[in-house]
Structures
1.
Amino acid sequence: MSTDRLLVHVLRGPAASPAPAARRGPRRPHRVCFPQATDAWMRRASVACSSASDGEAGGMTYKDAGVDIDAGAELVRRIRKMAPGIGGFGGHYIIGDKCYVGGTDGVGTKLKLAFETGVHDTIGIDLVAMCVNDIVTSGARPLFFQDYYATSKLDVDLAEKVIKGIVDGCEQSDCVLLGGETAEMPGFYAEGEYDLSGSAVGVVKVDKLIDGKNIVEGDILIGLPSSGIHSNGFSLVRRVLEKSELSLSDQLPINDGITSSQVLLVKFSWHRLSSMLSRLVLEIISKGGVKGLAHITGGGFTENIPRVFPPGLGAKIITGSWEVPPVFKWLQQVGNIDDAEMWRTFNMGIRMVLVVSREAADRIIEDNHGSNPAYPIGEVIQGKGVCYA
């Protein structure tokens, strides 16, 4: 069954007999249904993921790779005591009837792959996407972007490639590169390496601000697909690649003729879809029914989805209701990574999760198909955190 036909089947269920022409009345809303998981690998993920894997079975974890999600969450809790109101995907600042939304991010250790491969013209697009996709979760239209580029000794040609990627990302995201900072810090970074971060600001009318407060039990989770790993989890990815003993020029066993670097850095780079994501999300929002959005980056499903819920609500994810890119299956197999760790580290093939009313879910799924599909991947439930079925 094609993707389009599957979505319609999931949405509508069995065909009903046509009503007589003379019978008119309010349109009866569809009931969104979810397909059963058909992939054995996905069926194993029917676990609650409120904490990271402890690694007792010998599998790799994000913490073992040097990234402690729990420590990051603890820091956020402490910062909240000093600056109440933080913790969302973007910060809100209201002036009159407008809310300005700001977001700051980087691309993490994915930079290491750029250093090793010499591919520097796409990492800037990833950077813009990480920031812009955060602020659109509030319904904000991106306005401008500012970057920070730091290195021990400035290589003008290399820096130009990086900044060109940032400019491309801004153009694709309908915002402007307003300015930035280039810092030359002798002896601070390894030769040939640099650090990269940025900030984006957008705007939305206060009465259109999306903050998740209206989310209720029974609302539907809609997933917009990713093309692959994007920019989170790369500390663990690099550990798995090291264990596999494959070089960046070797072919991964998941795609004929595709090298590791192309899969991890280029072929599945965020920039392949970033040009349409902010526009697509804002278009969906403009039609109504969207109550909350979660950008799936560091922390995966487990940490990010609950950030948009009011207290007392959680998420039930129906595994197998979308196609998981094969690179994630390869990572889990080679790294012997626990299911819970996979859901807490990677985007698993979903780059953005929309929380919508059931009526809006029908329309969104119908309107988005083909090259930009939208999948019903779960629902809001009573409880806390995320469970997988």
2.
Amino acid sequence: MSTSYPQFLSNTALDPSFDEDIRDVHLLYDYNAQAPDGTPEKWRYEMWFFSDKRIVYAIHGGPMAGRINYQTASYQCIRPGELWQCNWLEETGTICSLVYDIPNKKITTLIGFSQGHWEHAEEAHGDKRNEDDFNRWRGLAKIGTQTDRFMLSEQADILESFKGKGDLVPIDESSPTF
């Protein structure tokens, strides 16, 4: 039997609070980070929990600024009305896990950047809807091995939370992610 990858499996049913807590929620958040020279800077991210299987996002600050993307994602409710986890895999080979802390207005992430994505951040900029950008990103996944990763653990403060697309462009649920 041949399997198409990536695959997402969860043996936990999606909590019914998804519709109120997550579906169509749009967040703007800032990571307190630092530039390569050590000076403090903000890394602004924008996330739209588009559906129970997709996310749409844009990055406005930090080394990945200028990246506009959408992905297939899986969600897990940790505590209804309080904590949700969202996980996805990038076409660059980068693995992402995000925890949305609703009452404390925090995002906690672990991102396992592929060597290609981290070392060639400029090449990871662009919009997935542009075929040249999409193909270039796929090539970044081929640099290094599965263990050649830059592991980044960060927390961000949520600046805005609202329902709807904001400035992000909606996607077709069947749009390819790989």
3.
Amino acid sequence: MSNKKQQTKKESSILLGIPDGDIEVDNDAYITKLGGLPVWLEPSKPPSSKVCECRICHNPMYLIFQSYVPLQDSPYHRVLYVWACNRRLCMRKEGSFSVIRSHVVDQAYLKAQRQKEEEKRKKEEKKKAAAAKQQQAFGNGFQLGDLWGNSAGSFGATPTTGGGFGMKKPSTTTAASVVASTPFGAAKKNDTKQDDLIKQMNELGIKDPIDTTNLPQFPGQYLYIDEEKTDNYESMGIDMSRYKEYLDMEKEMLMDIDEGNGETWQGEIYEKQHLPKGVDKQFKKFTERVECAPSQCVRYEFNGQPLFYSALRPKDQQLITSTCKYCNGPRVFEFQLMPNILSILPTTEFAAKESAAVAKPIDAKVKNVDAKTVLDSWNVGMEFGTILVFVCQKDCHQGLIEDVSYMEETALIQYETD
């Protein structure tokens, strides 16, 4: 009994993504990586360029994370992409980050499914022929065909907890073996609501497709996948005094910029943001947990519990509990990106290059200089405390089963002073 308890305590369902070296040839959709260019499951059918366009500055965003994450008992290959704008002025505004979930059916499954449907069709034809023959023998008074019933297939089964994070592309026999136990099907053509959803899907399809040759990119980095180990978690302690000093310094800096320009842009960017009185308990928990593996860039646990960077606000709670806009099913947590990514990807260096038109930082206290110009001159790239990604629990697939699909998912961004 005691051995079982000890084993359960050590086991962890949380997987961590750890940096594992540069990617020399970036052309594999079946890996997990930071940076680089997006690699599509179906290269001939990329998504719309809108999926990686910042909704604030309308510039192309950078891919910061891509992962092949198939779910158990699913016939689909599945990849998640996360984009972010590398312009500091766009941070803390809705539309500066984007998450896309992509599906393409496994060809072995599709072949087996069609073969199964063909066999079923032949059996039904034989039954009808036999029924017609019997009807002729007994006369029109007895409808033997009424004894034969057709049952509808089971569609849209909810996937079980995924274990695909960091997995290599599965063999073709894996998906084919699912046929007997987990049938999947296409949407009904006469379903008006489904047609509307497909229309939404088409907006993310190949209309105005992404041209990857024109996308900005960070150098690609492989991620090594390992289980989280927290054996020494309870014995760890973190000195939070330096974090409090940072909050005070940031508040003073923002006040100086406002006074120097005579404008209050702070109210726009930090709307309803209140600095904590003392230390944020949620942040302390976050920091202590991360200290167990400081180099982690990703935490993955499908249908698991996220590690929040700060306490949830009411609008955050509403966002992550909203239903899937395609199937109206529940959303669940799948993974989160960690702040160590900002030390792995050269966000500051690339932001400085993009702001090269500004010869030198502008003194914020100089008159007649607007706050936007000041911030642009100080552009040091993207920022975040953590990016939490919530996805459709049913892992719904819109359109026909053989269609490649791109579905927008929900990201909650928590920042330093949240």
4.
Amino acid sequence: MITELYAYLTNLPRWHIFAIFLIGYLIYYLIEVVKRPILAVSNGPFKKYLRKNIPILEMKFWPTFWCFESRAQTVFASIIRSNMMPNIDYRREVLTLKDGGEVALDWLETDCDSESPLIIILPGLTGESQAEYIKCLVMAANRTGIRTVVFNNRGLGGIELKTPRLYCASNSEDLSEVISHVKKLNPHVRIGATGISMGGLILGNYLANYSDEAKAILTAAKIISVPWDVNKGSDSIEQPYLNSMLGRHLAGSLCRTVRKYDILRNEEFDWDMDVVLQSKTIKEFDSHFTSKHFGYKDVHSYYAQATLHNKLHKIKVPLLCLSAADDPFQPLDAIPIKAAEKSSHVAILITARGGHIGFLEGWWPANKDQYMGRLFSQFFSAALFDSNNEFYRTSQLMMELNLQTSTSVPTTPISRSSSPIRKKSIPF
């Protein structure tokens, strides 16, 4: 019998081999890849509202069958969206900040009512308003009748750098000015905010550090693929070989950004621009430039200030977060699941797959109705239109719960929120 089996295997027709491989691949996909996302949030009014009003939360996430590996999702999402989504004809506003610096605000209001809700969108590390993932969200909002304005950081989006200052993950001063400006222009409109990747860090730090101001202006917020623990995220993106290739690409983008501006070359600065431009990783760039640029002792001090996983208890605006368990920029054990389960205002939706700003689904991912965009539009449509004031009443209950539990929040929550989470405890 063994001889016959050996003879069969050695003479196996090619279509048999293909069929066996395809069946095995399909079984693996259905068992290990297709999962219902986890919603980490306290058992309170926010969780009840989300379960009732956001249908996508109850559905399994079906990653693209031929492209579910984390790095593949990350890379192909960018390639596919770039080729399928045309540039958007924004209305540009150049805003002069208090220190004389300028930023570009790109508005899309086409086919929207002048008093319709508005979402402020913050791109990632070197992203701007024509980045493919930004256009995905902008168009998703536009289809639901919500206006958007993309906040391009200093030096990005085609705006010259007027002062010797760029931007960083820990500093939300520019965002505070932008949000206040947008509110002045739209005093009677519900406003939301979204940050992607590093934009999520800037927004998250704004929500935590300007909590009362944020609560007074913003109705709801959302962050996508945020590197919750910047130190762990930096270590993860430097892992060989595929992760480090992504990291090198982003480091190169940062170097190209600073290379354009002679205003950043001066003997009085603490950094050596020639050394900065030789940076091969994001951490090297932040060590040679960003940390010095913003007055930190070293890169570790900068990352400690930028990190978000230990600040959830400070946030007072209803915040929905989307993270993938396989994000190469952020390991699973750094996602603050336990902290979210104790938070009145923060909910984290964790998919088993999705990579970094990927979340591709379907046999051929289209530029419409992608998972990331559907979650985005469902959440903000419910929160910002809020025709029966259900979200408003939920927000009031959330604040009451926050006030009731605030005295029991530990003064040093870092050890609790950042405790390692064993992967086997997550059903992925």
